[in-house]
Amino acid sequence: MKTTVEEFSPVQEKGSTFLLRTHLPYGLVGVLFGIVFVKAEIVSWFRIQEMFRFTSFHMYGVIGSAVVTGMISVFLLKKFRVKAITGEPIAIAPKVFQPGQVYGGLLFGFGWALTGACPGPLFAQIGAGYSVVIVTLLSAIAGTWAYGALRKYLP
Amino acid sequence: MIEWLSRPWPWYVAGPLIGLTVPTLLLLGNKAFGISSSLRHICAACFPAGLSFFQYDWKRERWNLFFVGGIFLGGILAVLLLPNPDPLVIAPQTKEDLAALHVSDFRGLLPEDLFSWSNILTWRGLVVTVVGGFLVGFGTRWAGGCTSGHAIMGLSNLQWPSLVATVSFMVGGLLMTWFGLPFLLK
C-alpha cells in the first residue's frame, strides 16, 4: 500500500485538479442546500413576510427543526470526538459577544424583511431565475465592504 | 416520486435537511456552517482596498465560495427539474396586508411589482433591492454572521451570543415589516 501512496505524491496533486477535488464536495452540499431552499420556498419573499406577520408556521418549523437537528448533531460529534474525513479533529470556534450582534442584527433584520432573503437565499433566488436579485447581491457585497471600511468607528 | 418532489416541501423535511448541513460540513473538513462570510471573501478577493478587515488569506476559505456557487446551481436545478405545478399558497391575511401595500403579483416566489428589472429604478424597487441588500450585507457582517452562522450554527453549538443575534434579527424584521414597510411601500 505504501508504494501506491508514493506513486500519487501530493506534488502531482497541486493545481486546479487538486482544488476541484478538495472543494467539489462543498459545492455538492451547496447544490442540495439550494434545492431545499427553493423547494421548501424558504427563498420566497412571501414566506418571510408570513413569518414576520405570524400567519404561517412554516419558517418557524424550518428554522426550529434545523436548529434541533444541528444541536443533536453537534452534541453527538463532540461526545464521540468524531474527526473530519480529512483527519482534522472537529473544533468549533466559540462566538464572542459584541454589541454588533445587536446593532448589526437589527440592521440585518430590516434588510431581511425588505429583501425577503438572508445571504444564502440571495444566491438561490438568482439561480431560480430572479436575475434582478443580482442587484441585491451586489448591494449586499457593497454593504459588507462598507462595514469593513467603517468598522473602526462602530461599537 | 418526482411529482411529490415537485410540490412544495414541508418544513419537517426541509428543516432537518438544513440542520444536517452543520455536521456534513464539519465532517467534510471541520468547516463551520455560515454563508454571509462568502460576501466578505468576495470583498477580500476582488477589492480589499488596503482595509485590514479584508487582509487575510481568502484562498483558504474558498470552500465557502464553492458552497454558495452550489446554492446558485441548486436554485437553477430546482426550478428546471422540479418545477412546482401549483401557484404559491399564501396565507389569506398576509395576501390582504400585502395588497394594501400595493403588492399584487402573487404567482411566484417573489412579487414582480417589487423585484423586476422594469421596477428597479422606482422608489419601491430601489428600497427592496439596493437598500435591503446593503442592510443585509452591512448588518450580517457587523453582527458577525447571518441566519446560518448565528441562528443555525451558533445555536446548534449553544452559543448565547448567537441567541442575542438571532433575537435581534427577528426584532429588526418585525420592526421593518410592521412599521417600516407601510411607510416605505406606500
Structural account:
The complex is a heterodimer of chains A (155) and B (186). With 155 residues, chain A is mainly α. Chain A has eight helices and no strands. In chain A, α7 packs antiparallel against α8. Chain A is globular. Chain A starts with a helix and ends in a 5-residue tail after the last helix. Residues 1-6 of chain A have low confidence and may be disordered. With 186 residues, chain B is mainly α. Chain B has a domain at 1-86. Chain B has helices at residues 2-6, 11-29, 37-46, 62-81, 92-100, 123-143, 147-156, 160-184. The longest helix of chain B is centred in the last third of the chain and has 25 residues, at 160-184. The mean pLDDT of chain B is 96. The interface between A and B is large, with 118 and 128 residues. Chain B: The chain crosses the membrane at residues 12-30, 63-82, 120-139, 160-181. Chain B: Belongs to the TsuA/YedE (TC 9.B.102) family. Chain B: Pfam families: Sulf_transp. Chain B: It is a multi-pass membrane protein. Chain B: Keywords: Cell inner membrane, Cell membrane, Membrane, Transmembrane, Transmembrane helix, Transport.
